[in-house]
Design a protein that fits this description.
2 helices, 0% strand, 57 residues, mainly alpha, flat
Length: 57
């Protein structure tokens, strides 16, 4: 559980750093800025996790 938490924080931190870098360099956002796109990615991840837990990958 500790590793999962660290990975989550590291992912958030690296995402923030990349976001700041793109804004500083005045580049377009490298990801869709729409909430539905983010929710789609979340849904894919959640579906994968649930399937793996229910059916044991």
């Amino acid at each position: 559980m500790k590793t999962y938490f660290f990975q989550t924080i590291a992912s958030l931190g690296s995402g923030l750093a990349v976001g700041f870098l793109f804004a500083f360099l005045r580049l377009p956002v490298p990801a869709p800025p729409a909430i539905p796109a983010v929710m789609g990615i979340f849904g894919i991840t959640l579906g994968y996790i649930l399937f793996s837990r229910w059916f044991g990958s």
